[in-house]
Structure prediction request, 124 residues.
Amino acid sequence: MHDDDQKMGLNYELLVEDALRHVVRAALGIVEKAGLPGDTHFYISFDTQHHGVEMPDPLREDHPESITIVIQHQYADLLVEDDRFHITLFFGGKPAQMVVPFDAVTNFNDPSVGFGLQFGGRKL
Prediction:
């Protein structure tokens, strides 16, 4: 530990936020392996300008700051990695491949059970 870290103390808010991002990762990991159970579906909002976000340019132009995606009926190719997820969603019947770093996620909700998380967008 650095002397500066000892003087400033631990930032528990960031530690908790990082831990809660693991909840998002784990939930998506379950869906990657087993599909969406029952009425489960996710609303995920993220910063479209965040470093590492990949999405079609026309979609980014329509959503220059943030977008909320729905993972429910029309999605494909969900792949969950340690620091990001990949997914293909359909907008107007056209596929849109996306890569979303977990650090870009600002909100995660599963309305089927009334569960939601909100993030400040900061990283440890």
